[in-house]
Specification:
This protein has one domain. It is 75% helix and 3% strand. It has 13 helices and 3 strands. It has a 3-stranded antiparallel β-sheet with strand order 1-3-2, with no helix packed on it. The radius of gyration is 22 Å and the shape is globular. The chain starts with 10 loop residues before the first strand and ends with a helix. Keywords: Membrane, Transmembrane, Transmembrane helix. It comes from Nitrospirillum amazonense. This is Lysylphosphatidylglycerol synthase-like protein.
């Protein structure tokens, strides 16, 4: 039985594993990744000098910090287009003010908490349900957005490896040409999916799996939006790195995508420690670790902490001003209590 998801990314299979087996596989994968990260952290920590890190952070040029902050703001602005394109695909019209608020708050919180489907989906439900969307519509938005990000990180990471494989080759200790070949195959696969979406409206079958594809136009827009968001995010961190790092932008973008992907799979909240470790391992031969760690700390503050604080303030203000929700219910209860006491 096939079920077409919003954004067309859902995969079904005749031999799907039982739910408990899927959960066990996910848990084991996460534990293995966390174990490997712990070992990697021990390796990286040998070159860790706190004084060197804080000195680098204090001496960061304000121009670089401002540029990185602007790139982060641009990334979050583009991120709102995930939900905009999802609503357009579903044929639902909402004012951008509502969509921008709901998507920004959802991503700012899910980026820090992890488990984006639950955390980001809960925030979206709180905002979008008030605007009249059903739980099913909101679930489709979440699926569409997840598909969009997956396409974007796959395309951007593969393109980065194809252009600059040196950092990845050094990290994995494999020939650069081998990584370029794999990246080329991934790009060809994405191109084939886009062509298949253009020429057929039926689910594409591969062995026992069935892929319900969106239209080619939708798929291309998903790739463009997500790739732009990832490039802006990577550029923000790249701007903060020490000049002597000497890593090209596309090389760094490939490493950035690898760090993001592994952090997401690990299910560690915000990818804290996992993302940083992957990048430090990739940059270990490109300058002292202190500068890279300082850049990562500054980036985490700009990309994670500041948006989270802003989202919290916006959500609290929205709840206070709204005629619904727990704050409004508390105000009505206080008013009734005051009326009875008079």
């Amino acid at each position: 039985m096939e079920d077409k998801a919003a954004g067309g990314g859902q995969v079904t299979g005749d031999g799907a594993k039982p739910n408990w087996m899927k959960r066990l596989t996910t848990l084991v994968t996460a534990l293995v990744l966390v174990g490997l990260v712990v070992l990697a952290i021990r390796h990286v920590a040998r070159d860790f000098r706190p004084a060197e890190v804080w000195a680098y952070v204090r001496l960061l040029p304000w121009a670089s910090v401002a540029q990185a902050a602007g790139l982060v703001a641009g990334a979050y602005l583009v991120m709102t287009l995930y939900d905009v394109s999802a609503l357009k695909y579903l044929g639902i019209k909402l004012p951008y003010r509502t969509v921008g608020f709901g998507s920004f708050a959802g991503y700012a919180i899910s980026n820090n908490v992890g488990f984006a489907v639950i955390s980001g989906g809960s925030v979206r439900y709180r905002v979008y349900s008030v605007a009249g969307l059903s739980a099913a519509d909101i679930a489709k938005i979440v699926v569409f957005s997840t598909t969009t990000f997956t396409l974007g990180i796959t395309f951007t990471g593969a393109l980065g490896v194809a252009i600059g494989p040196e950092v990845g080759a050094g990290l994995l200790n494999v020939p650069a040409w081998l990584l370029q070949g794999v990246a080329g195959l991934v790009l060809v696969g994405l191109g084939a999916m886009t062509v298949a979406a253009a020429v057929t409206h039926k689910p594409v079958r591969l062995w026992r799996w069935s892929f319900a594809l969106p239209s080619s136009g939708v798929m291309l827009s998903q790739i463009v939006i997500a790739s732009l968001e990832i490039l802006l995010s990577a550029a923000a961190l790249w701007t903060l790195l020490p000049p002597e790092t000497g890593v090209g932008f596309m090389e760094f973008t490939a490493l950035f995508c690898a760090g993001l992907a592994i952090a997401i799979v690990s299910h560690v909240p915000g990818g804290l420690g996992v993302f940083e470790t992957i990048l430090l391992l990739g940059l270990r031969d490109h300058g002292p670790a202190g500068g890279a760690i300082g850049a990562l700390l500054a980036y985490r503050f700009l990309y994670y902490v500041l948006p989270l604080v802003l989202a919290g303030i916006l959500l609290l203000t929205w709840e206070i001003r709204a005629d619904h929700g727990p704050v409004a219910a508390w105000r009505r209860w206080r008013a009734r209590k005051a009326g009875r006491s008079q």
